[in-house]
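Please check this chain.
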Amino acid sequence: MNKGPDRRAVVVGGLLVGACSGSAVVASGGESVGPPRRVVSLNPCLDVILVEVADRGQIAALSHYSRDRYGSTIAEVAQGLPSTRGTAEEVIALSPDLVITGRPASATLLTTLERLGIRVVQFPVPETVADSLAQVREVATLMGHSERGEAMVGRIEAALAAATPPPGARPVSALVFMPGGFASGPGTLMDEMMQRTGLTNAAGRYGMAYSASVPLERLLADPPELLLSGEPSPGAPSRAERVLDHPALSHVRDEMARAVFPERLLFCGGPVLIQTAAVLARARTAALARQA
């Protein structure tokens, strides 16, 4: 993988870091008349929703992050669609009648688009599953296909139901452990997904009040029952990735099950929650079977 910008900073959290919740905000350009004909998305999490609810002909461009085969869940689809790095020049050249982006967004870009009369709608990072489902519905309605939003919400809810353990099942302590020791903390969308699939987020017992890096020493001193870590990226591992296979982890291998949790599943909610729920549920089942 080409080591580009840290996607955690781009998505401003996704499943990892809590952010302002709420509805989309029309940032510029006023109200539109009818469904948009040419939409540019500048956010990889909105890209994932857009390809599910919009007509292909409506999509003028997705963010370039969605083409990353390691970091995106829609890379194959995105390869067949135009992309943009989000500069004002690129966006204007695409002649959109709607731009959707995350919040916050570049003030310079917003001002430029407003001056040209191009409508921009900003979406916050969803903090909960409910927020995420609402965002799917909002994007679908914006595209003029509210029925597709409802269908997608139904699929997500079905996946969550299938991944929910039976009443009374014992929770399994787990930690999402990514390059650099980065872990998803309490109060995040990932934290809720762990709870829904029968996992207790061990980040809380390490004293974490938000998403941050967990020192390897603390992990070794008090290992969770299950460690969920990312799959290696192509090429030589970076310094941050080396912690995932640190030799010291072998000392707790009898106390702690391990499972692969692709880092791409951390970035977004919406349709990605279908894969997230399935991976977490399988990992929990395997961890319990290991203890039997």
Summary: Residues 1-14, 16-21 have pLDDT under 50 and may be disordered. DSSP finds eleven helices and twelve strands in the chain. Residues 220 and 252 are 7 Å apart (CA to CA). The longest helix spans residues 272-291.
